[in-house]
Specification:
TIM Barrel, 10 helices, single chain, about 15% strand, alpha/beta
Length: about 325
């Protein structure tokens, strides 16, 4: 948790959390553990697991992004089994009772499958309990299906499919008015000290996924031009500062430093749906500030040079020479 503060993160949204994260949030809120403000989500499935198409996709272990069934040739060609509505409603109630802030769903639509209808039910039941729905949708066909159910946030820029070839899809996704979170760095190599290209699971990079490293930024820029609210996010297991560095590298392909200040600030706030509290500096919002060495409008990597992190008006990280990282005053 201190590593997040040292990297300049005062707030973290974790969309797929074990129940133990609820206790960690309680301890942070109580002041017994120092860390960023935590917003937590719990996952609810949209369908029974569908059999992957192709050869060797289903049942493989390891990082699921290596064998993503959203990506051909593994994308299912048969409908997934439906989950009874009563079970879905019970799952929503469980997420609410435990005290999560969001519902997380993952949509990979199957032919004549139940995914969109189940998502509609989750969104509706979630709203009754003031639980927003975050939906993972990574192939162009998936956000197009998801927005018919009106979830509150889309996560993971669609990186499978060419939006430059489908102006109608760009317009439909952007005009839905649903904020999107970036997470572009998953499919760019992370280089270790020995210059070894690694995936987010710290294993050798799967070069068969590299097309997403180009298509994700292209699709992001097209959606940005069409008016979507696009906010910073990461989906890797590296320490916070390294994840930030990788995401900045991916975002910088198509976004200017000025764009990035909006993506990391007010748009990130909107992607948490807490824009009334965070994301900009103005009266009535939480007193969170990050002081850095350098001008990010001249060099975006200045964002990696955090000197002081202030959360709720208190210094929680002071990395100036001779100061404690914990920021004690």
């Amino acid at each position: 948790m201190q590593a997040f503060l040292d990297a300049g993160f005062t707030t973290v949204l974790c969309a797929i959390c074990p129940d133990e994260a609820l206790e960690l949030r309680r301890r942070i809120d109580a002041g017994t553990v120092k860390g960023p403000r935590l917003f937590l989500g719990s996952i609810i499935p949209l369908a029974q697991p569908a059999a992957a198409a192709g050869r060797g996709g289903a049942g493989r272990g390891g990082d699921p992004a290596r064998f993503d069934t959203s990506r051909p040739p593994l994308r299912p060609t048969e409908p997934a089994g439906a989950i009874p509505a009563a079970d879905t409603i019970k799952a929503v109630e469980s997420v609410a009772t435990k005290g999560y802030d969001y519902i997380k769903t993952v949509i990979t639509v199957t032919p004549r499958g139940p995914e969109t209808d189940t998502l509609k039910l989750i969104v509706s039941e979630g709203k009754k309990r003031k639980l927003p729905t975050i939906t993972h949708a990574v192939s162009v066909i998936d956000p197009l299906a998801a927005i018919d159910a009106h979830p509150d946030v889309l996560v993971h820029t669609p990186h499978i499919g060419r939006l430059e070839e489908d102006a109608d899809a760009v317009k439909k996704i952007a005009s839905a008015g649903i904020p999107m979170t970036s997470t572009l760095a998953v499919f760019i190599p992370h280089f270790d000290a020995d210059n070894t290209p690694l995936f987010r699971d710290a294993m050798p990079f799967p070069w068969n996924t590299i097309s997403s490293a180009g298509q994700g930024p292209v699709n992001a820029r097209l959606l940005w031009e069409a008016g979507i609210s696009y906010g910073y996010g990461t989906d890797t297991s590296w320490p916070p500062k390294q994840s930030l560095a990788d995401e900045l590298r991916a975002l910088s392909v198509v976004f200017s430093p000025l764009d990035l200040t909006k993506i990391l600030g007010q748009n990130a706030g909107r992607s948490t749906l807490k824009q009334d509290r965070i994301g900009t500096i103005e009266p009535g919002k939480l007193a969170d500030l990050v002081l850095i060495e350098g001008n990010p409008l001249e060099d975006v990597n200045a964002l990696l040079k955090v000197a002081i992190t202030i959360k709720g008006g208190r210094i929680v990280s002071d990395q100036r020479p001779g100061r404690s990282s914990a920021g004690r005053r």
